[in-house]
Amino acid sequence: MSILGTRVVRTEDPRLLTAGGTYVDDLRVPELAQASRVTFVRSPIAHALITGIDVSAARAAPGVVAVLTAADLDDLPPPPEDSGLTGTEGAPLPLGGPWGEPLFAVDRVRFVGEPVAMVITDDRYQGEDAAELVNVDYEPLPAVVGFDAALAGASLLFPSAGSNVAVNGAKEADAATFEGCDVVVEHTIENQRLAPVPMEGRAAAAHWAAGKLTVWASTQNAQIARFILAGALGLDPGSIRVVAPDVGGGFGAKIGVDRDALLVAWAAKHTGVTVKWSETRSENLLAMTHGRAQRQVIKIGGSRDGRILAYRLEIVQDTGAYPRMGGFLPFLTSLMAVGPYDIGKVEAGYRVVVTNTAPISAYRGAGRPEATAAIERAVDLFATEIGMDAADVRRINLVPPEKFPFASPCGAVYDTGAYAEALDKVLAGAGYQELRAEQARRREGGDVLQLGIGVASYVEITAADAAGGETARLDVHGDGTATVYTGSSAHGQGHHTAWAMLVQAELGIDMSKVTVVHGDTDLIPTGVGTYASRSLQLGGVAVQKAAVDVKEQARRVAADMLEASESDLELDIERGAWQVRGDPEASRTWGQVAEHAGEEGLTASVNYTEGQPTFPFGTHLALVEVDTETGKARLLRHVTVDDAGTVLSPLLAEGQRHGGIAQGVAQALLEEMVYDPSGNPVTGTLVDYAIITAAELPSFELLRSETPATINPLGAKGIGEAGTIGATPALQNAVIDAVSHLGVRHIDMPVTPARVWAAMSEARDGQ
Amino acid sequence: MKVSVSVNGGQVDADVADRTLLVHFLRDVVGLTATNVGCDTSSCGACTVLLDGKSVKSCTVLAGQADGCEITTAEGLSADHGEMHEVQRAFREEHALQCGFCTPGMVMATVSLLAENPTPTEDEVRSALEGNLCRCTGYHNIVRAVLAAANERRTS
Amino acid sequence: MIPAPFTYKRAASIDEALELVAADGDEAKFLAGGHSLLPLMKLRLAVPEVLIDIGRIGELSYIRDAGGHIAVGALTSHDELSRSGLLAQELPLLAHAASQIGDPQVRHRGTIGGSLAHADPAADLPAVVLALGATLVVRGPAGSREIPAGEFFQDLFETALQPGELLTEIRIPKPEADGWSFQKFAKRGIDWAIVGVAVQGGRVALVNMGPTPLRASAVESALAAGSAPHEAAAHAAENTSPPDDLNGPRAYREHLARVLVRRALEESRTRA
Known about the structure:
The complex is a heterotrimer of chains A (767), B (156) and C (272).
Chain A: H1 13-18, E1 36-42, E2 48-54, H2 56-59, E3 64-69, E4 108-109, E5 115-121, H3 124-132, E6 135-140, H4 147-152, E7 165-169, E8 183-194, E9 203-209, E10 212-217, H5 222-233, E11 240-243, H6 259-271, E12 275-278, H7 281-287, E13 291-302, E14 308-318, H8 328-335, E15 345-353, H9 368-386, H10 390-397, E16 406-407, E17 413-414, H11 419-430, H12 432-445, E18 449-459, E19 470-476, E20 482-486, H13 495-507, E21 514-518, H14 535-562, E22 569-572, E23 577-580, E24 583-589, H15 590-596, E25 602-608, E26 617-627, E27 633-643, H16 650-669, E28 701-703, H17 722-738, H18 753-765
Parallel strand pairs in A: 1-12, 10-11, 14-15, 20-21, 27-28
Antiparallel strand pairs in A: 1-5, 2-4, 2-6, 3-5, 7-15, 8-13, 9-10, 9-12, 13-14, 16-17, 18-26, 19-20, 19-25, 22-23, 23-24, 26-27
Chain B: E1 2-7, E2 10-15, H1 22-29, E3 48-51, E4 54-57, E5 70-72, H2 86-93, H3 103-116, H4 122-128, H5 140-155
Parallel strand pairs in B: 1-5
Antiparallel strand pairs in B: 1-2, 3-4, 3-5
Helix pairs in contact in B: 2-5
Chain C: E1 7-10, H1 14-24, E2 28-31, H2 37-42, E3 50-53, E4 63-65, E5 69-73, H3 78-83, H4 85-90, H5 92-99, H6 104-109, H7 112-118, H8 124-131, E6 135-140, E7 143-148, H9 149-152, E8 153-155, E9 158-159, E10 166-173, E11 180-185, E12 195-200, E13 203-207, E14 214-215, H10 217-224, H11 229-233, H12 250-271
Parallel strand pairs in C: 1-3, 2-3
Antiparallel strand pairs in C: 4-5, 5-10, 6-7, 6-10, 8-9, 11-12, 12-13, 13-14
C-alpha cells in the first residue's frame, strides 16, 4: 500500500518543538557571530518633501557603527530603463518610469513607514535609541487616502505621471450586456485592506566578504531573492548566496526580498559590516506590504427563474504608495471574476490607483479572494431580489460536469470540477434544511439571537505561473539514504514530509532516511519557491519525476549487479530492495546499488515545466448567530468542501484548509488596516489590528472531495489559498443573511458589531 | 544590574542593562532562541514562558523582575535525552504546528493551562489560548492537541 | 519595542518603596505586574527615568475577610482574584470580572492595584470597584489615607494619588444586596471592553463610557424609584461621554450601554 494519501506526521516537528525553529533572528552561524544590528528610521508622515536630514546626533550615540541615508547610495547601478510596462500585461512586476520606487526615500516620502535612513549599532537596544536621534525635516504635502481622493487627483504622488491612476485596464460598459435581463442588481462594495501578519515579521542578515554577498532572508523564494539582489545591487548572481532559514509564515508578503531587505544587503556591502535586521510588529504593520484593498462595482442580471445571464465587475485597486505589482492583482481578479458559474456575458475591468499608504502586494489568494467575494455577494443580492434560496440560485448556475474543460468568458480554462456536487455535499453535511427551519423559527419568534447561513461557491487558479516550473534533484547515497534538493520553499507547509513521502512511495526508501533541502542558492541554484499554491503540483511532481529517473538508473545498475536483464528486475517497495523477479535471494539494497553506480552515484535533476494552472474549487457554508441587540456575530459552524484534486497528505491538506479558513473568517469579521484622512495608520498594533484568536473560532467541519487534476501524474491542484477564498464570502453572506429579514441587503467587511448595528438601524429607518 | 535566574533547571548569573526584557535575556544572554518575539504590544504570546510555574509573556517582564525566579522555556520541556514532553508529542501527532513560530509559546501556554485545569473543555481550551496568536493553523489542530494531551495525562 | 533607558530599583517593603519614590519624585514610577506600564514604555509613550519594582512586597498580596468588608492587597493578581474562594463567596462580581481580563498570561502578572492606579477607563476593575463602593487605602510620606472609589478616578489615566503615594489596599464592603452582573462587550475575548457594565445590587457602573469609570446615576435613581430593568436601563447613556473610535461611533456605545445595563440588571435579579 502506498504511503501517499495516508496520515503521516511531520518530520519537521521534533526539531521545531524541542529546540524551536531557526528563524533569521536565531541564526548562530559563524559569519553572523559579530553582526551589528540594523534599525530603520521611517517616515512618520504620509506625504511630504524631505527638506533635510541631520544624522550628527545619531552618529554620536552609544554603540553606533554607521548611519546611512539616500546620500550614501552612491554604489548602485543606475535604475533600469523604463520597461514600458503598462501594468495590464498580467505580470507581477513593478511599474517603472515615473512610478519608480527608491531604496531610501530621496526627496519625498509617500507612506508612513517608508525607510528614510538606517542606523547600524552594536545591539538592538542601542538601535532604537539611536534611530530616535536622526532628525529629518519634512514639508508636508496633502495626503491622498482612499479611492475617491486618488481618482480625483487633487494631490499627486508622482507629479510627473500626471495622475494617480497607475494602470488603466478599464473595460467600457456595453449596454447590450444586460439586455434581456428581467432583474438587474447593482452595488458598490469594498474588499478591505488587510495586513498579512505572519507571526515572524520581515528579517534579513547580510555578510559581505571577498567579493561575495551572503544574505539570510525570511523569504519564500531564495532564488528569486538572489535575482532581485543582483539587479538592485549591480552584482553578478554568482557572487550572491541567499539562504532561507526557517521562515515564520509568509502568505505571499515574503515573496523574494523587498525594499527594506535590499537596504540591509546593500548596507553590508557598502560598509563591510555584517548586519542583522528583524522588524518590530509595529514596523511590520506599517511597512510590510498589505493585501486586498479593492473597491468593486458589481452588476448582476438574470431572469426570475434564477438564471444569471450577465455580470459586470469594475475594480479600482488601491496599490498603496508604489505600484509594485503593476495591475497583476486585479488582473487575476478579472480572470476569475465569473467564478464557478456558467454566465453568458461577463465584463471585468480594473484601474489601479496610488495612495499615501503602504504598498499592496500578494496576500493569501492574491486577487482571487476579491473575485470570489464580489460574485458571491452579487449572487446573494440577485437571489434576494428574486426571492429564491441562495443555494438554489447557485446550483442553477454552476458550471455542470459535462462542460469541462470549461473556457470561461474571462479567459481562464477550468480543467476539472464537480461544482454542484461540492455544493450539495456541503449543504447535506451542514444539515441545510434543518438550519433554514431553525432560522425560520427564530425569525417567527422575534428572537434576539438570529441565525445566519452563508454559502459561497468558488473556483480558484493555482500555479498561475506554471510555465516557470520547479526543480528537484534526488541523490541516493551509498549508505542507503537519500537527499532531495527542492526548488520549493516551505514556510510551514510541510514539504519536507511530503517530498519524503513521494520518495518512499516511488522508491521504497523509508522517509526517515530521506533528507530534504531547500532555500539555499549555493545548493539549489535554480528554482522558483513557494507561492500561488504551486508547490505540490510543480515541486512535488518534480520530485516524483526525479525519483522515477533514479529508479530507471538503478534498474540498469541493479541488473548489471545481479547479471539479469532489466525486464526481469523489480523493485520491492515494501522492502526497498531490487530483486530478480521470482528470486528474492537475488536482491540488492539501495545503498549497494548506489555504491555500484559509480562516481556520480544515483542522481537525477528535473526542471519540470510542463505544468499548467489548475483550478481547485469548493463550497463553504458558515453558520453564524447574530445578537440583534448588539450586532455581534459569532461563528457557530463552518462546513467546507475544498477540492484540490488527489490528496497526497490528508494531514497537511487539512492544515492548509484550517489556516485558510481562519484567515478568511478573520477578514470577514475582524480585520481592517485603517488609515485616517492624513494617511496615519490607525490600526498600527495588534491591539487594534484584530487578528483572530482561538476563542472566536469553532472547530471546522471539512468534507472530503477529490476530483483529480489531469495535467500531472499526482492528480494534484493547489490547496494553500482555497480556504481563504471560500471562507470570507461565506461569513459575510451569513452575517447579512442573519439580518436580511430586517431589510438589510449588504454590509461591507469587516462586519463588525457596529457595522451590523448601523445596517440594521438604517434598514429600520428606511421602512 | 545583576540578575540570577534559574532557566530550565540551570542557574544563570548575568549583568544586564536595567531595561533588558526577559525575552531578550533568554534569547541573547542565555542563548535559548525557541522563545520568539512576535509583537510589541503583549498581544501575541509567542514569547510565553513559565515563570515560577505560571505562564507569562516574557516580553512584558523585565529580566530584573525574574531575578531569583525559575523560568521554563520550550527547550526545557524535553527530557535530557531529547524525548518530547507529552504536550509536544500531542502537537506533533495532531499537526498543531506549521511554520512553528508561535509554537513554543503555544506549548508553554498549554502546559500552564493543563497544570491549572487538567480536564478542560474545548471552550475552556480556546479561551485559555486566546493570548496566543497563530496565523497558520486556524487553531483547529492546536485545540485537538491540547485535548489529546489532557486525555493522555488523565488515562496514564 | 524597547523601553528608553531607566534605572531599576527594587523595594522589599512598603516603607522602602515610599523612601525610594520620595527620593526620585517625578521621574519614578512604581512597577507592579507591569502589564499596564511596560507596554506603554515599550512604545515609548511613557519614559520614566526610574522604575521602583514593588512586585516582591509579599505583604501587599492578600485577600482577607475583615468582618464588614473584604480587604484586598494592591498586589493581588487578577488570577488570584479570579480563583479566590472567599471572593467567589462574598464578592463574585470582582472574582468574575478579574477572570475576564486579557488572557491567562496577563492575569498571572497584572494586579488590582496596578490596574486601578493606571486608571484606564476602558479597564474593567475601576468600574467594578466603583460598583462595589470600595475604599482605596493609600500610603504616603504623611501616613495613610482612605479614598472612596468615587473620588479616586479623576480623569483619563489620572487618579487622586499624589506624588510619593502608594496604593496599598482595596477595602470592599460586603454587599447588602446579592444580585450582581458583569457585562463586558468586546469584539474578541482579549480586547478591552467597547462598553462594559458592572452591577452590584442597586449600584451600576460603566466601563468606557467616559474618561473615567462612571456610575450610571440616572439608572440607579430609576431603580430606587421602583423602575423595572428595561425602564431603568433606558437612562444608561445619560451624562456619559463615550469615545468615537474604530469600534463605533458615540451613538453605538450609548445604545450598547442601554442594552448591557438592561441585561446586567436582569441577570443580577436572577442572583438576588
